[in-house]
Design a protein that fits this description.
The protein is mainly α. The protein has one domain: Winged helix-like DNA-binding domain superfamily/Winged helix DNA-binding domain (Arc Repressor Mutant, subunit A), CATH 1.10.10. About 60% of the residues lie in helices and about 10% in strands. A two-stranded antiparallel sheet has the order 1-2. A hairpin with a 2-residue loop joins strand 1 and strand 2. Helix 2 crosses helix 5, helix 3 crosses helix 4 and helix 3 packs antiparallel against helix 6. It is globular.
Length: about 140
């Protein structure tokens, strides 16, 4: 097998559930609004060492330990970090390889922009319901 093919099929740096959890917290600590598991995976799916179901298991484990909570956000069940998750994620983010963080950061930034736009649309739609008024600036 050539060196090129060896690199193509080599496993990623994120192989354990603990590292998937750390990468999940790293991502979620940078998000301004609650998010779905699918969007979390889109942002952190930068490493071939894990897949969508590993992300689902990581979120489930982080809920069980109190690092993430499920919230109702405009009628959708989404996830956000707790204060405990923010504190522990900030302490442990150095354990994530820099190369993985460098790959994840642009995806996280794009997700932040999309979430802000989505939030503005939801706020606007909800403010147009009968009996409500537009928010005052």
């Amino acid at each position: 097998m050539s060196k090129k093919n060896k690199r193509l099929f080599s496993p990623g740096q994120i192989r354990t559930s603990a590292k998937v959890k750390l990468l999940t917290l790293y991502c979620m600590n940078r998000l301004p609004y609650p998010v779905s598991i699918g969007k979390i995976h889109e942002a952190i799916g930068v490493d071939r060492g894990f897949g969508y179901f590993d992300t689902v298991q990581a979120v489930s484990g982080l809920i069980n330990t109190g690092h993430i909570e499920e919230v109702d956000y405009y009628g959708s069940a989404l996830y956000k970090t707790t204060e405990r998750g923010k504190a522990h994620g900030a302490i442990a983010e150095g354990d994530i390889p820099r190369s993985v963080r460098n790959k994840a950061d642009p995806k996280i930034s794009a997700l932040v922009k999309a979430l802000k736009l989505e939030h503005m649309v939801k706020v606007f739609k909800n403010s147009k319901k009968p009996g409500s008024s537009l928010p005052q600036s």
